[in-house]
Amino acid sequence: MARITVIGGTGYAGTHIVREAAARGHQVRSVSRSVPAEKIDGVEYAEGSVLDDAAVAAALDGADVVVATVSPRGDMAGQVRPAYARLAAAAQVRGVRLAVVGGAASLKVAEGGPRLLDTPEFPDMFKPEASEFADILDDLRAAPDGLDWFYLSPAGTFGSYAPGEDRGSYRVGGDVLLTDDAGESAISGPDFARAIVDEIDSPAHRRTRFTVAH
Q1: Are 18 and 9 in contact (CB under 8 A)?
Q2: What's the pLDDT score for residue 49?
Q3: Fewer beta carbons within 10 angstroms: which end of the chain, N or C?
Q4: Which domains occur in the chain, in start order?
Q5: Would you state the pLDDT for residue 27?
Q6: What pLDDT, on a 0 to 100 scale, did the predictor assign at position 138?
C-alpha cells in the first residue's frame, strides 16, 4: 500500500485518480482549493493550493507519491510552472516520487514530426496552456537526478467534455500521439487513472514522459 497525495484531487483527472487509488487500497489524500460535498470513501480531504508552499509541504508530509493534476488555465495560467518547480524541489528533498498529469499538445504527431502544439491546426486559444504544460515537462527533464518523476500525457481527447468508455485497458506510447485505426486519439477518465496508479504500483517510467490512449 502506498501513501498517495493528489493535488487537484477534485478535478476531472484528480477525482478519477483518487477513486482508482482508493479502490486498490492505497492510503489517499486529496488536496484542492475546495472540499467536495460528495466524498469518496476512505479518502482524506484537505483544502490547499499548489501555490501555497505550506499546503505543498503538508501534502508531501508522509507521502510516498504526490500526483499533481492542476491545469494552467483560468486564474492558474502562468502560475503552475513555477509552483511545480517548487513542488519538485520539495519532493526531491523529501524523497517523494512526483507524478505530473500533463497535456497532449507536447506530443509529436509522428516520429520526427512536430509537436501538436506547433502544427498550424492547433487553436491559438489553447496555446498558452499547452505551452506551459510543455515547459513543465522541459523543467522536469532538466531536474537534478535525485528527483524521481514521471509525466503522463493523455490522449488528444480527454476530459469531462468527452468522458469516453471505461474499457479497463489502454495502450502505452512515448513522445508520439497514439491514434486508433480511424485516426482518433482518446482515453477515458477511469482508464487514464488506471494508467497512473499502475505506474505507481509497478514503476516502469522513471524520469520520463509517456502517454496512454485506447
Answers
A1: yes
A2: 98
A3: N
A4: 3-213 (3.40.50.720)
A5: 98
A6: 98
The rounded distance, in Å, linking the Cα atoms of 42 and 50 is 23
Residue 73: predicted pLDDT? 96
Residue with cell 477534485: 10
pLDDT at residue 36, rounded to an integer: 93
Q: Dump the DSSP string for 23-69.
A: HTT-EEEEEESS--SS--TTEEEEE--TT-HHHHHHHHTT-SEEEE-
Cell of 145: 537526478
Instruction: Look at the block and give the residue holding cell 501513501.
Output: 3
Q: How far apart are CA 59 and CA 47, in angstroms?
A: 10
- Residue 106 pLDDT: 98
Positions in the chain short of pLDDT 50: none
Burial class of 7 by CB neighbour count within 10 A (0 to 12, 13 to 18, 19+): buried
Tell if the pTM clears 0.85, that is, is over it: yes
Q: What are the grid coordinates assigned to 100, written together?
A: 505530473
| pLDDT for the residue numbered 14 | 98
* Strands laid side by side in the 65-68 sheet: 43-47, 27-32, 3-7, 65-68, 97-101, 149-153, 208-213, 171-173
Grid coordinates in use for 48? Answer: 490547499
Residue 212 DSSP class: E
